Amino acid sequence: MSTVDPALLHAFVDGELDLKSQLEMEQRLAGDPALRQRVEEIRLLRHEIREHAGYHAAPETLRTRVAALRSAAGDAPPSAAPSGVPTPTAASKAGRTIAWGRWLQWRPLAVGLGAAAVVALALQLAGPPPSRDEAIAAEVVASHVRSTLGQHLVDVASSDHHTVKPFLSSKLGFSPPVAALPLEGSALLGGRVDYLDGRPVAALVYRQGQHVVDAFVWPDGGSDRAPVFGAARGYRTAHWTQAGMTHWVISDLNEAEFQALVRVMQRVDRQGG
Predict the structure, then answer these.
(1) What's the pTM value of the predicted model, to 2 decimals?
(2) What share of the chain is helix, strand, coil (3-state, %, to 5)?
(3) What does residue 169 show for φ and ψ, rounded to 5 degrees?
(4) Which of helix, strand or coil describes residue 229?
(5) How many whole angstroms separate alpha carbon 56 and alpha carbon 45?
(6) Nearest CA among 165, 168, 211 for reference residue 187
(7) CATH architecture of the domain with range 131-270
């Protein structure tokens, strides 16, 4: 496995990288199985923490100790002069009194700022990490941009599902649903093998008018879920689960056209192509 900064890997899994860095990491993952395994381990660890980690309030003993420390800090007077040390003059006493008073004036602000910093840190640590769907959405966008800008839309170029489906099935451990779409201006361009959510997936590529559409498909043992629509970095996305398959679709179509496309894809899939 090539050497990668662990912080960079975690940022990639959390979907926090900029687009350029996301694409570069995707390219490294494509050629490094050990690195892909490391990413999958991070995803699994994040999932386990999010789903199973316990949340505990501070114990009362700790609250009491903190309160005692704050009280001691507020009650501590200036130390008395040791025996044998000359007594300060009236002027020096006055200066010390003024300085002590100023410190007391600033102390509530300092304590408040410190408390605010602690609260902010606690909220940051306690805040939920990006969801799995958010992380996948970032990978979907990166893959779509990489394929369109890199002029590598497909591994097999064909509008015939009898050609595209067997090719993808031979490269993957499953047989993805492949079909042309009965939608005006739509054309199946072909398919490619891609990599999302820590696994190889099928990517079906369509052209809808002047727009490229990527439809990613992979097996899912969960129940059917209705489409969830979103937007990321100027692209529209939708994902749903149907007939044991997860679908993610992305394009820069307008909202009405994109929703119509998703409805047709669902209908065709229910009809078995």
Answers:
(1) 0.57
(2) 50, 20, 30
(3) -60, -35
(4) strand
(5) 20
(6) 211
(7) 2-Layer Sandwich (3.30)
